[in-house]
Amino acid sequence: MASSRAVPNLAFRRLRGPRSPAEFAAAVRRAGREIGEHVACDARYVGRVESGEIRCPNYAYERVFLHMFPGLSLTDLGFVARERVRGRGARAVAAAPEPPTTIPNDEESDVLRRAFMTGGTVTVAAVSFGLAPARAAAERGGGTEPLGTIPAPRAGGRFGESEVAAVEEAVRRIRLLDDRYGADGLYRRAAEPLRTAYALLDAGTTTRRSTADRLTAGAGELALSVGWLAHDSGRLEDARSHYAEALATARVGADPGLEAHAFSNTSFLAKDAGRFREAVRAAQAGQHAAKHLSSARLLSLLAMREAAGWAGLGDRTACEEALGRAHTQFGRGASDADPEWMSFFGAPELEFLEAQAWSLLGDGARAVRHARRAAALNDPHFARNLALYHAQLTGDLARGGAVEEAAAVGGRVLDLLDDVEVRSARVQAMLADTARVLHARRDVPEVAAFLARHRSTVPALAPGPGPGTGGGA
Q: For residue 118, is it within any domain?
């Protein structure tokens, strides 16, 4: 756990090399997935390791790090031997009738989670976050995987590290499951942690300002994550309410990062609802909030949101200007200041958003070109986004008259929906729109085969909110 005598872990820092903490954290998560470990690594965790605050990783992180750096031991990675960190103190905690009421750090909280999964007490469950094993997720689908428990306010309304850590973990967990499975099946269950988080925020007290600030930010991010689940599953009015709640939380907490995130999602929602002028204004407000946050990638995303609004309004000149700013900012690269929630915003997402803009402007050739680049993504962690990118491409191909290729790519989307258990009304609605376009060419054998398979595997849907992206959480 944390110590006032923490020694920086220079060996680990050298292994990170030129990558930013956020980029390295993404590499850790990818390595974990390769061996069936789902670790919630982020830039903050990497910073705590490098500062020496985390002296020894938990067993899950240990397996991931040793997989990433074969031939090296924990001590080679700059960590302290486990017995020196745990020792008799850890055994005393395990033997105690009640668990501690705080979660001291990331590796200890992961140990508590694993203890609960293998038969821990109800009290442990109240201060930890129940994560289902990867195998159970594959068997049951993301719609039934546990989202976890946020402790209710203590006597007197007090809250502390355990409650705040649980809120932050809820946000990470929702984003992880959304990336993998999509929003359907998650939204209703995510409402309970959100209510608990705001109950803590509204009625709770703490002796530390930093803890209060973290809870405010965590509750706001949780509202955005739940709002995104509503958005992606077609519940646009619910999403609008959650985004407004997050924006109000950001304003009360004077949190420009949360404010920029809320405006980004609000702009995205407005575009999907056909309120293009609002989409432009929200994106511009987000850029104003983000201008001092030192994150070029965040400014790039917000400029892309603005471009989509201008495209919907038919203003090609303003759209191209916004696209130019987005590419300029994106080209400045990732940084430590990039928010954790922006992990989805890489080159494929940039191409996808540009494809949408050209599609709205009616430039089918450019839309197809950029959609092809987006669909080249091959990262199973973003399975829902991969399905989205292919759904965008098949729609652009169909509208452009390339019906045989559209049918082939549409079949790939159906494969993704089946193979990875993606549950996103947005993907299904986009595919249904493509099927309606292709219906006029059902005399083409490839098209007829796609339409028959689509009818048999995807339930009939009313027209959805229109094409969108998976990066709102």
A: no
Residues 249 and 162 in one domain: yes
CB 354 within 8 A of CB 342: no
Q: How many domains does the chain have?
A: 4
> Is the pTM here over 0.85, yes or no?
no
Average pLDDT of the residues in 184-213: 78
Tally of CB atoms within 10 A around 356: 26
Say yes or no: 400 and 385 in one domain.
yes
Residue 99 is assigned to a structural domain of this protein: no
Q: Where are the alpha helices (DSSP H) in 273-402?
A: 276-290, 296-312, 316-331, 347-361, 364-375, 383-399
Phi/psi zone of residue 421: left (φ > 0), alpha (ψ -120 to 50 degrees), beta?
left
429 Cβ contact partners less than 8 Å away, ≥ 6 residues apart: 234, 461, 463, 464, 465, 466
Please say which residue of 345, 375, 403 terminates a domain: 345
The tens digit of pLDDT for each residue in 214-265 reads 889 999 999 999 999 889 888 899 999 999 999 999 998 899 999 999 999 9
Structure-block tokens of residue 400: 């452009």
Number of Cβ atoms within 10 Å of the Cβ of 353: 26
Looking at the predicted structure, is the pLDDT value of residue 138 above 60?
no
> Of 80-84, 161-165, 304-308, which range is least confident?
80-84
Mean pLDDT of the chain: 79
Helices 209-232 and 236-252, axial angle in degrees (round to 10): 160
Residue among 373, 262, 358 at smallest CA distance from 319: 358
Residues 269 and 247 occupy one common structural domain? no
Q: Is 20 helix (H, G, I), strand (E, B) or coil?
A: coil
Residue 32: which domain range? 1-93
Are 470 and 370 part of one and the same domain?
yes
What is the mean pLDDT of the segment spanning 168-187?
A: 73
Q: Does residue 200 lie in a domain region? A: yes
Last residue of a domain, one of 345, 377, 405: 345
